[in-house]
Amino acid sequence: MSKTPSSLENFALAKLDGMEAQNLRRRLTVTEPLGAVEVMQGGRRMINFSSNDYLGLNQHPLIKKASMEATEKYGAGAGASRLVTGNHPLYQELEMRLARLKGSEDAVVFGSGFLANSGIIPALIGPDDAVFLDELSHACIFYGARLTQGAHHVFRHNDMDHLRALLEAERHKHPHAMIATDGVFSMDGDLAPIGNLVELAGTHDAWLMTDDAHGIGVVGGGRGSSFAHGARHAVPLQMGTLSKAIGGYGGYLCASHAVCELIRTRCRTFIYSTGLPPGAVAASIAALGLIEGDREFTERPLTLARTFTRELNLPAAESPIVPVILGDTDKTLAAAKLLADESFLIVPIRPPTVPEGTARLRITFSAGHKEADVIRLAKIIREKIIGEDVS
Ligand SMILES: *Cc1c(COP(=O)(O)O)cnc(C)c1O
After folding, report:
1. Catalytic residue at 214?
2. C-alpha dist (Å) from residue 192 to 34, 77, 179
3. 367-381, pLDDT tens digit by residue?
4. Which of 5, 64, 134, 308 is at a distance of 20 to 30 A from 192, taking alpha carbons?
């Protein structure tokens, strides 16, 4: 019989108290989906403006059907790591389709986006090497960089002069280097300057990895940030997730065949983790089928986001993510509560997820939102939230 040591209890309680005092305690809320954009939370029916399911695909009948059929055929789980016996027949099809969408030679699918970033970076970058990261990169990019045990250099958000200066000062000290950044920034919705990054990466022989968790399906005709504004940038490491616009679960890397093979052989989060459930892989295949065939559909979330930014006189949205930065955490919590009373679910985002002093409403737009609801949301924010600010 084991007894929990009281020092453990004390440690946990003290930590929680500290976070409570700073308004940083996080809590889970049961949220029941009621369709593509509506949810039930705390007995209230609300329109969800906080989901990353930008295309409403997680509720799409064809995708649910594909998932159920695969579960019937192959079972609920993969049963083992892909390198053991978990590499069920659907994986090949998914990796082929991802590579085709992203214009890469090959693709490798992971358990999640977090597992992808925390595995890819240390599989390619060693203790003598360096990673150069945008300061607003996702937490799992920082986590992956830390696991390399090499150097990491953080550049100011989208500041190419700063990145160039760091590369000039530091790159020569290391055999290999990587530049890692979100392609579409998860909390700000802006895009990385991919063309400039490709150029700097080329000049300094640094391997560029973009994280397109919020790009695939909704930016660049659904192909992601490397293809935004009609471009076609050669990014050697295009990483992303199947858990947002794709509507299911999983992560991926699109790269050359050699790099993908190295990842399959060397990457610990790929090797030592069970394959995805067949239903999840089938759902992603079906989702990619819908995205490839319908460019107009992939543009709808951005169109709605632009309606919203126009209504509020904000700079035009570049992606389906629009931050309304209020700064103060208490004020942001109050704003979210006010919006909830109007049946809009917008989860307040606060430090440490975003930098100190930049607490915000992070509003995300989905193909299933009604334009009238977007306009009503903008009106309430203008009159009751930003309005207060000005007075
Ligand atoms: C959500 C997210 C991830 C993690 O992907 P999961 O599949 O949810 O683990 C990685 N990077 C960025 C930028 C994200 O927003």
Report:
1. yes
2. 34, 36, 12
3. 999 999 999 999 999
4. 308
